[in-house]
Amino acid sequence: MRIRGFSFSSGNSKTGRVGSFSVMPGKTCAKNLECYKDCYARKMCAYRKSVREAYEDNTKALMVDHRYNEFIEAACLFIDINEFRLFRYNIAGDMFSFDYLNACCEIAKRNPDVKFMAFTKQYEIVGEALKLGLIPSNFNIVFSAWNTLIPENKDSVPVAYFDDGEHEDLIDPKAVLCGGDCQHCKKCFYLKPGESVKFKKH
User: Concatenated DSSP letters for the chain?
Assistant: First the structure.
């Protein structure tokens, strides 16, 4: 759904009925990450023009044009129209700036009955916001670990591990294996600091 120039999604076969907003993979991510070459979102953009254009438009509107107030209003309207109770940021892309993260937090604050979630490898940006207490309680941000890329504060934040079958020694043995049914599981939306999940390579 497109609202005020921003593109949103109402979910898919894996996530179920979960609202989402995404930006361009790679361009909004931390630099020189090992995961870039295997990024499913980047590959999807390569063969689905409509998806790529939606992500590009979202990214330009925020990263270049700084239309954060319009983004907040559009996201709130999208959530209200569809009566979502779960909303995920960045199925593609990441928290590329403090301003973007602040806008995502503001959307969560305006929708206290909705549970928000995002995965991130932008450790520094999100870590600073956590220190400042800027992230509302209904917004769960899970730090993504990819092989040797692991957040230094992994015991004090929720963590999602990538399991390629070759780095099991780097994964928390207590990590819960993702079953691929977001709509019914919802584990990541409520993952607590010190808890973790793991995703098998596919």
Answer: -EETTEE-B--BTTTBS-EEE---TTTTSPTT-GGGGG-HHHHHHHH-HHHHHHHHHHHIIIIIT--HHHHHHHHHHHHHHHT-SEEEE-SSS---SHHHHHHHHHHHHH-TTSEEEEEES-HHHHHHHHHTT-S-TTEEEEEEEETTB--TTTTSS-EEEEE-SS-GGGS-TTPEEP-S-HHHH-GGGGPPTT-EEEEE--
pLDDT of 132-171, one tens digit each? 999 999 999 999 998 888 998 888 999 999 888 777 888 9
- Closest C-alpha among 55, 3, 32, 15 to residue 182: 15
At position 51, the amino acid (one-letter code) is: V
Query: Which has the higher per-residue pLDDT, 152 or 65?
Result: 65
